[in-house]
Design a protein that fits this description.
By secondary structure, the chain is of the alpha+beta class. It has a single domain, classed as Alpha-Beta Plaits (2-Layer Sandwich), CATH 3.30.70.100. Helix content is 28%, strand content 38%. Strands 4-1-3-2-5 form a 5-stranded mixed sheet, with helices on one face. The radius of gyration is 12 Å and the shape is globular. The N and C termini lie far apart (25 Å).
Length: 89
């Protein structure tokens, strides 16, 4: 199990991004959360199988192809307290 922090940059707030990302992450059986950041970007912390995380990110990028301008991905330590995926504020 691995964990990643993904920052999506672009027109990603106010377009249903968190709701869709939450749904996609749950389909990929990931744990973690997604939330808006004050600078207009969206942060996603995802934990699970490496292939599932990569597929999730790819699905989100396809769903919001016209909205995501850039993204950054970094490895983070897994968090054993994450049991499901949710939207946080």
């Amino acid at each position: 199990m691995i964990a990643k922090r993904i920052i999506f940059i672009g027109t990603v707030q106010g377009v249903g991004f968190r709701f869709t990302a939450n749904s996609i992450a749950r389909r990929h059986r990931l744990a973690g959360f997604v939330r808006n950041l004050p600078d207009g970007s969206v942060e996603m912390l995802a934990q699970g199988d490496s292939d599932d995380i990569d597929s999730c990110i790819s699905s989100i990028e396809k769903s919001f192809a016209g909205y995501i301008q850039d993204k950054s991905i970094e490895d983070i330590p897994p968090n054993p307290s994450w049991k499901d995926f949710r939207i946080t504020f």
